[in-house]
């Protein structure tokens, strides 16, 4: 009887998970299919032929806007945010391993931006730039706005990593005559490298598709999320679906590459161990 109850609970959880996956990826699958509409196809089913017409039309600036440049800006901004998030989160994690005066206040200040509405942060940064006589731009004000979103997550992740990290490895390295830099480079860094890659992927993903904190800080030139939002108001062809397909495949590719690197690092670490 106990086995039957467990089996029933398992199937209920499995069905719930299947519904969750369907709800999560159902709209993406519809966009993926509709992006292959024929030249005379519309925005709804049924398909009117199958072609790559709208993918070719995607890069025509006169038809859908400056998609190529907006993608380049979002990619550059995401990489900038990723690098800073990884470096600052690592330094913060190392610093908070030791207690110091004001640590609690500094911690709460660093994560306070998570509870502030994103549009308020964007508006505040935009107003500050204007008051200082500076022109908001994607590489300056938007860059800072994105960091207020990615850094708290990165810091929290590194705190969790270092809370589970035993200092015995570092103490052993020092007992064997390793310097502080050698201990960090050859002992600590290889062990936390997968976590740093995760922080970097998290920072890049949050920045790459951030809309609210970019709205008031991007300045004259749109990032990709702003460009997509602008397209929804004036594009009435499946080219919008083609854009969704391309950006989704790009995002999944980045995630798969990051997972592959993490697996390689873990296998290398296991071999060394």
From TrEMBL:
Record-annotated membrane-spanning stretches: 12-36, 75-94, 106-129, 149-166, 187-208, 239-265
Any single Gene Ontology cellular-component annotation: plasma membrane
BP GO annotations: transmembrane transport
Keywords: Cell membrane, Membrane, Transmembrane, Transmembrane helix, Transport
Cell compartments where the protein resides: Cell membrane
Residue ranges occupied by any ABC transmembrane type-1 domain in the UniProt entry: 71-258
Pfam families recorded: BPD_transp_1
Membrane association type: Multi-pass membrane protein
UniProt similarity note: Belongs to the binding-protein-dependent transport system permease family. CysTW subfamily.
Protein name: ABC transporter permease
Lineage of the organism: Bacteria, Pseudomonadati, Pseudomonadota, Alphaproteobacteria, Hyphomicrobiales
